[in-house]
């Protein structure tokens, strides 16, 4: 198994029209969000403007999980939807998306032509046991610190850090480092597209 932890200090922080964003991961190596030549990008953003328009990401599928706060979104002319803490929305990055409200969120951007499909979820019932898997996984410590245990290896995942796992050959565990804290952990799974 290969794994790495991308600490907060290694993450790129920049601004967008509605707030700021923290780039947690981008692939392939050497690709750029600005150039739109990436296949997968994980980020966390703050929405500080009460009304904003999401950046056009045509060619990408998006998933958004609310870490804190709440917002309302409208994609093109579809009905407005409301998102509360740890709720998720999936949408086409090319849709004109309006938002109302202030929040911190977690974003998954995956190219439509990628060989993988990315799915995010909030881990609500820690401690949690994860089965051995050939899939690539990410865990983002959105709030609080966590303990990752894989066999005899025990590693602390600090707040805002991203754990990247490739092909876990045996089950592993994740739990909060301090019980009772407002812990928020988000998982992303990459699944390969299989042609029929």
Explain briefly what this protein structure is.
This protein is mainly beta. 0% of the residues lie in helices and 62% in strands.
Task: Tell me what the structure shows.
The chain is mostly beta strands. The protein folds into 2 domains: 12-111, Jelly Rolls (Sandwich); 116-192, Jelly Rolls. It is 0% helix and 62% strand. Strands 2, 3, 4, 5, 6, 7, 8 and 9 form an 8-stranded antiparallel beta sheet that branches. It has a 5-stranded antiparallel beta sheet with strand order 1-15-12-17-10, with no helix packed on it. Strands 11-16-13-14 form a 4-stranded antiparallel beta sheet, with no helix packed on it. It is globular and about 50 Å long.
Helices, strands, pairings?
Elements: E1 2-6, E2 12-16, E3 19-27, E4 40-47, E5 51-53, E6 60-75, E7 81-83, E8 88-92, E9 97-111, E10 116-123, E11 128-130, E12 133-143, E13 146-150, E14 153-157, E15 162-168, E16 172-176, E17 184-192
CATH topology of the largest domain: Jelly Rolls
Structural class: mainly beta
According to CATH, the homologous superfamily of the largest domain is Jelly Rolls
The H-and-E topology, N to C, reads as EEEEEEEEEEEEEEEEE
Domains counted in the coordinates: how many? 2
How many strand segments? 17
What's the average pLDDT?
93
- Rough shape? globular
Percentage of residues in strands:
over 45%
């Amino acid at each position: 198994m290969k794994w790495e932890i991308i600490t907060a200090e290694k993450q790129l922080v920049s601004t967008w029209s509605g707030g700021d964003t923290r780039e947690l991961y981008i692939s392939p190596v050497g690709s750029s969000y600005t150039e739109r030549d990436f296949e997968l990008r994980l980020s966390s953003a703050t929405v500080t403007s009460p009304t904003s328009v999401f950046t056009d990401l045509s060619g990408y599928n998006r998933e958004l999980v609310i870490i804190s706060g709440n917002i309302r979104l409208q994609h093109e002319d579809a009905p407005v939807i409301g998102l509360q803490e740890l709720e998720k929305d999936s949408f086409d990055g090319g849709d004109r998306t309006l938002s109302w409200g202030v929040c911190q969120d977690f974003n998954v951007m995956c190219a439509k032509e990628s060989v993988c499909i990315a799915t995010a979820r909030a881990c609500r019932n820690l401690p949690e046991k994860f089965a051995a898997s050939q899939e690539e996984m990410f865990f983002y410590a959105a709030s609080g610190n966590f303990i990752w245990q894989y066999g005899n290896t025990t590693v602390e995942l600090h707040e805002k850090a991203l754990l990247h796992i490739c092909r876990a050959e045996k089950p592993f565990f994740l739990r909060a480092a301090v019980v009772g804290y407002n812990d928020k952990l988000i998982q992303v799974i990459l699944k390969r597209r299989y042609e029929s």
